[in-house]
Structures are given as C-alpha cells and as structure tokens.
Structures
1.
Amino acid sequence: MNFELTEVQRDIQKLCRDFAARELIPHAKKWDEHHEWPTEAVKKLAELSLLGVAVPEQWGGAALDNVCYALAMEEISRGCASTGVIMSVNNSLYSDPILKFGTDAQKEKWLKPFASGQKLGCFGLTEPQAGSDAAAQQTVAVKKGDRYVVNGSKNWITNGPKADAIVLFTMTNKDAGHKGITAFVVPTGAKGFKRMAPDKKMGISAAWSCTMYFEDLEIPAEDMLGKEGDGFKVAMSTLDGGRIGIAAQALGIARAAYEEALRYSGERQSFGKYLREHQAIQFMLADMATELDAARLLVLRAALLKDKGVRHSQESAMAKLYASEMASRVANKALQIFGGMGYSKELDAERHVRDARITEIYEGTSEIQRIVISANLLKD
Ligand code: CAA
C-alpha cells in the first residue's frame, strides 16, 4: 500500500492550487453574489487541459489518471465550488460516457472538441418526475426511419444554459422500465430544443443550471450512445465516476472553510487569548482536519479503482456520502469559529455552507448513496 502521490499527480495538484489562488479565490465571492458565470476561468481551465483530465490525448484530453482528476477537482473547488462543478460536469458526466460507450466517429465529433475545452457539455438525466428515481424517465424518443423524435423535458441541468451538447436520456420503450432507456448525444442548438433561464439556487450560484424542453426534436440514429435500451447502465456507470468528482468538490469546499477558520483562529482573540488557544476551538479544528483526511482517502481510493478499471459503485458512493456530509459539518464548524462574522456576507464562511449543501443532493442524494452501498453489501 502506498500513500505517496506520483510526481505527475503532485504537479497537477500544485498547478491547480496555484491557479485557484491566482484566478479563482479572488473572484469567487463576486461571482456568487452576482450569479456570474466564470467565463474567463472556464476558458483558462480549457487552456490548462482541465476539461478532459482523464481523456486520452487522441480525443482532446490531458491523458492523466482519475487520481489526478480528483486532486484537480479538490483544488479547483477549494478556489470556487461553482467552477468546480462546471469542470466536473464536462469531465465526468459528459465526456466520460462518450469515452466509454461512444464509437470512434462519435468521439471525433462529440468528445474531442469538448475534452479540449473548445465546447462545453452537460448531462440530461433528471426530470421533474425523475430525480432519485432515475428509471422513471418520461422524455420519449420515437423511432421514425433513421431518426428519433424526442418530446419531454429535463431540469436542474448543470451547464445547461451554456452547453453546446448534452448526453440525453430518453425512454424508447415505455413498457420496459429501466431497460427502455436510451442515451443520445444532442446539440443544444437543434430545432425543437428550448432552454429556460438559469435556475435561482441557494449556492453554487455561478454554475448555471436550467430546465429544458424538447418539442419534436429530431436526433439522427447515429447519435445514439451505446445500444437501444442500454441508457440506464450508461447513466449509472457514468454516475459512478461523477460521484468521485462531486466528492472531491465537497472536499475542496470543506478545505476552504477549514483553512479560513484555522487562519482566523490565530488572528482573533477572546477572553485574553487567541481562539486557537481555547480547547473548544482546538477540538473543532482537530475534528475538521481528521474528517478532511478521511474523506480524501475515500475519494482517492475510488479514483484509484476507476483507474484500475474495477467496478467502483460502492466506493464512489461511500466517498460521495462521507465527503458531502463532512463538507456540511466542516463548513458549519468553520462558520461557528468565525462567530457573528461567519454569518456575515462580508466573509466566505457562509458561502461555503451554502455551496457544501448541494453536494449532499446532486449526482444522487445521501439517501441514494446509502441505497447503493447497502445494495452492494447485501448482494451476496
Ligand atoms: N453500473 C452499471 N450498471 C448498473 C449500475 C452501475 N453503477 N447500477 C445499476 N446498474 C444496472 C443493474 O445491474 C441492473 O441491471 P439488470 O437489469 O441488467 O440487472 C439495472 O442497472 C438496474 O439496477 P437497480 O435495480 O440497482 O436499479 P434501481 O432502480 O433499483 O436503483 C438507483 C437505482 C441507485 C436508485 C438509481 O436510480 C440512482 O442512482 N438514482 C439517483 C440518480 C442520480 O444520481 N441522479 C443525479 C442526476 S445527475 C446530476 O445531479 C447532475 C448535476 O446537476 C451535477
């Protein structure tokens, strides 16, 4: 067993840490306040090859491993949680299924320009009536000759307002349950594709999401991802990877909260000594640091298994469950250390609490992660 990162992994960690300090941390508060999409930051992520971290060079990516991806996600999210999820959706939810299930022709058309960051992708699984119950899709795709005609809607689609294409899940056989779901890659500019205004959210306000409608949207059959009826497996195996990204995002948010609280505890005095000289604060810091380390180990284990090509549904779910709930605990403790100032919009502590909360919900709620974990524990 080896806890040492490789030189390449340390390099990518440092590159992202420096980038976050320079390009993200100084702006994250303003982007959040104004619900401003971080245009320049996303452009720079592309220049650094961070929009296709684990995608082979042949398909426009950086050809690094998933451990590098997790380390990068932590550092970018430590700087700005919104930028983190924009990066994660393009890497994990859009690029990954095309890499895994796409033909070479599809990779040329739908992966290369996205992994290289010229274009941005999103992932359309969630519907108004199909959130946690992902098999209850109501968006239908009906075959007509060499095309499919799609009608329905998706909501909470992160990157949706900005994306150039979507990995879209549809029902091609309503009587077949999860075996009736089929995935396609669809350009967002297609006729019959309508996007609503960005959602108003509690946190990650700079990462836009939206509802979208499809009215007689025509998709060529050649843009089907995987086989007809394989869509549920495409979605689930994609989420196995996506959950590593969100767990790493949670880790980054928690680290931001912890590091700021640690610094403040050495600046602020009460009862004649620095906050960090009170045992009550020391115990909080000790718990925060321990939980951060535990979450990081879970995240890196899941990423390592993905790199080995081993099924990692349970490990990803454990990483996401623990890291996301840890992020809320740590962000709340950090706010407590800041006291009244933590509740003020002047500092970042309250943003970290808001940003952390979504990591317990998207890409599978904590309850869904517990279902995945227990189903794996009980399957033999
Ligand atoms: N990989 C491959 N196949 C898988 C799989 C995986 N990880 N998980 C399940 N499957 C397969 C099973 O083997 C089974 O196949 P067979 O029928 O051939 O046996 C089939 O899929 C059905 O599996 P289950 O019976 O376990 O499925 P279920 O319906 O009982 O439960 C669930 C599935 C875990 C509850 C699932 O619906 C789920 O994960 N729901 C949450 C959805 C989610 O995470 N949504 C997030 C949306 S994306 C998002 O949030 C984006 C964003 O904004 C950032």
2.
Amino acid sequence: MKHTLKSIFLGSLAVLAFSCKTEEGEKTAERPNIIFIMSDDHAYQAISAYDNSLIETPNIDRIADMGILFTNASVTNSICAPSRATILTGKHSHINGKIDNHYPFDTTNVTFPQLLQDAGYQTAMFGKLHFGNNPKGFDQFKILPGQGSYYNPDFITKYEGEIQVEGYVTDIVTDMTLEWLEKERNTEDPFMLMYLHKAPHRSWIMAERHLEEFTTRTFPEPTTLFDDYSGRTHAAAEAEMSILNDMGWAGDNKVYPAVMDELGVEEVRYDKIRFENDYKRLTPSQRENYDRAYSKVNEEFKKSYPSMTDEDKMKWKYQRYMQDYLGTIKSVDENVGRLLDYLEANDLLENTIIVYTSDQGFYLGEHGWFDKRFVYDESFKTPLLMAWPGKTKAGIRSDAMVQNLDFAQTFLDLAGVEAPADMQGESMLPLLTGNEDQWIRDAVYYHYYEYPAEHMVNRHYAIVTKEYKLIHYYFVEDEWELIDREKDPKELKNVYNDPEYAEVRAELHAQLEKLREKYKDNSELSQQFVDRFVEDASEGKIFGASKEKVEEILERRNK
Ligand code: SGN
Ligand code: CA
C-alpha cells in the first residue's frame, strides 16, 4: 500500500519535472529546496503558535501560518546529539549507535544529506551539530565545536579551519546562512540547508539588545512548579533538574560570584566557574551592557536573599530562568524573520519546504524542572512547524504522531530519492499534502539511555499512544509507569497498579513488545549499552554526574 502511494507520488513528480522542462530541455526538475531550521532545547511552550502565555514569536509563527503546526510531534530519545543522529539517519538510537551525548557518532552511518548530495542537491550546514566529528555530505559547513558559545563563538569550518567570529551566536549563524544563500549557492540546483541554532540552550545568555527588556519581565508560573513527585516511581524524584536545587545561582541565574560570597550563598556544582567561563568571553563593550542589566538584578537579589524561604528561592530562580531563556528565544525569532524575509524577497518561498523544530522539548518549570530527557510531554514532545507555500494548505494543525525519526524519509521523498530500506521512519508527505488518511501510525517508541549522568534521569523505554504512556525504567530498579494522558495531562499519577487499568496495561504491554520487534530493540541490546557504560565507569569515565553518585548507583545495582 505504502509503496503504491509512493510510486504515485514519484510518478507525479516525474510529470512535474517533465512539465517544467523548457523546449530546449535546459531546465531540469523543479525539485523543492529544503530548509531545516532547528534550535537547541526550544520548548513548544515558548512558541506563540502553540502557547502565547510566555512569549510572542511572530516570525516562527509565520511558518505555521503558511503551513502546518504539529501538536503531537515527538523525539525518540530526548537529548541533543542522539536526536540529531536520528534526524540524519532516520534510525532509532539503538540502531545508529548514538545513544547519548558522550560516545561519538559512527560516521559509517548513511545520512539523508549524503543521499541528497548524491542526487544533485547543494547542501550546507550552519550552527550546532554536537557530534564530536564533522558532518558528511555537505558542500559547506560552519559548525560550533561541541555546545558552542553564545558570545564571540568559535566555528569549525569546512574550508577555513577554526575561526572565531565577534558577536552574538544566533545573529552570526544567520549571517553565515544568508551569505551562503546569497553568494555561494548556485541558482540552478535545488538545495538542502540546515540552519541550527545553539539558543536557547543552557546557560541562556541573551543578546545585548534584549537584556534591558527581558531582565525586568515577570512570567506566569506553571501549576506543577512545586511538584513533590509523589504518585510516580522513584525516577522523577531522583532526577537532578530541579530549578530550586540544581540550577546554578551564578552560571544559570547570573548572580555574580562575588555577591554569592558576600551573602554566603551555597554553590551548585561548578556554578561559579560556569559563570566565569561565559563572562570572560565578553568584550569590554559587551560586558558593559551585560553588567548594566545584571547589576540591577544583583542589587535586588542582595536585598531579598537574606529573608528568602525555599519557596521564594524557587520562585525567584524560575523568574530569572524564564527571563534569560526567553530572552535568547527573542533573537532566534528575529533571525528566523530575517531568513523568511530573504526567502520572500528572492522568490524562494514558492518551492521551498521550511521546517522549524527543536532537538527536543524542555521543561520550563513544569514538575519544578529545567532540562529534558524524560518521556513526559514537555521533553518528549518537540515543536514542529512546516510550510511548503503553495503546496501545503495554510494555517492547519495536525495531531498526527510524527517523530524526528521521520525527517530523513520525508526529505528524501520530497526530493524523489528512494530511501534506504533500513531507515525506520515514515515520510510525512501525506500529511503535508492533505492526505491525513494515509498516515496510519498510532503509537511511537521511545528510549533514553544517558544514566547515570548529569541530571540523573534513569534509563527508560516507552510506548506512547494518544491516550497512554507505558514506561519501563531499568538499570538499578525495574519499575513501570502507566500514564493516562487524557485524564492526567500533567502526568502526575502512575496508574500501573490500578486494577481499573488491568486491561489497558496488558494491551499496552503487548503493543510495546510489537514495537520493540518492529524497531529491532531488545534487552540484549540494552544490556550491551549498560555493560559498556559500567566498564567505562570503572575506568573513571562518568559523564557529568559526580563520581560518588555513580559509585553509589553502581553499588546499588550490584546488590
Ligand atoms: C550541558 C548542560 C546540561 C545539559 C547537557 C546536554 N550543562 O551539559 O544541563 O543537559 O548540556 O544538553 S551545562 O552546565 O554545561 O550547561 S544537550 O542539549 O546538548 O543534550
Ligand atoms: Ca538539546
């Protein structure tokens, strides 16, 4: 069935190609250009097309106005480099091998940019990749080393070696992108461009022009800011991503280390050094603007800190977090606007597919958290807006269960390139062309691995349907969670042992096993990844958690 539909589409592409040829036959198929815009850790709660209670993002919203907003888009593994590996390969982490941020990407994997390049696409990548190796299949790339820096960032470039560029990272990545479109691209062949922002990743440092406005704004608190994690397995309580306890006063919230010393504020791990590392990158004039805004924050903090209760601290940190996080998004939105304006002014909107997404979602205080990793909605789901002006209907919403797993096959399909048989996603093309009925997936698979590590989110895999989530945590304790997504949208209650759900639970278990078979995941594979970790940990590689903590967990595991 799928194959037939695909043939029909390829057939119509061929007709399109034929009809595009001039009499002299000089013009080849008008294959669409692809622009893949991705930010790092951009929560859908912080895009006004989804929710305008925190920030207005008029430019990102333009993409939804021209096309589709997906309300159920998700990732297969909610962490940076694994998400990028899944996007490029069209395969789950256990198949492409990039299960976490630490082990390098296996460059023998076939990626969709390589296939598009082979098929005659011009390819370019600018911004954050985070692989530990350079991307294959690109005519041009300028990427940030590792996480990259917000101010005066370094870049690894394909032709100029390592360079440092003065300015603000979101503006610079856009300058590079526009320069490539304007000067390097030829206008004959289609292109595939990956425009990848570092923002709004931690430590959330906004552009100078937004400091004054955003450091004085106040934002509404989520209703679960003071979640006590009762009603679920131990995994939620064990996680170290609490705004109150794990967010740094200095490195994250920009309290000056000297002020912390003066007040006797206790440091969260590496907090002051993270602040210093960011601060020392600023030029004197950048520092002046930074200090102008943050000295006011620090003055106010000096007055209020001595009498703050834990509840006050949580509230204060949440506000500081939102000011900085959303401040960085303001620049992303402005720069997306610059790109869209360029496309419009250069008649490029018509035959270009524009995608806006994030490598995963993010907690903006829900459950008292920042960061991601869990299969709970805020980090499992990711924003996805797609437009193909003239082809997609404008302003529609889709609740289809699409994933980052699907991009590779979607882009290959759009370009009329056959996808390798071992890719594991589905082309989203039917959803873009109003053929929703041809989209049949009703459950997705998730598997997170990076544990024990920074933020201490337990290893888990899960099946997610529109109604339920069945989650299995493993490594030390084997524990299950069943979430009723319709009755409990905030995901506060595990009903796994509730007799009322016995039937649902049995059904989900069976479905989960089928999905694991389909995607070729199993306990032997998980065990291999665990064994590799345990061996490396015994050699002192500990991936961001404290040594004592890792030892304690491994000991618990051995019991
Ligand atoms: C850094 C951050 C973490 C974050 C990881 C992964 N700590 O280590 O908070 O979870 O990146 O993020 S920081 O102190 O260095 O800011 S990811 O998006 O790259 O997966
Ligand atoms: Ca990320």
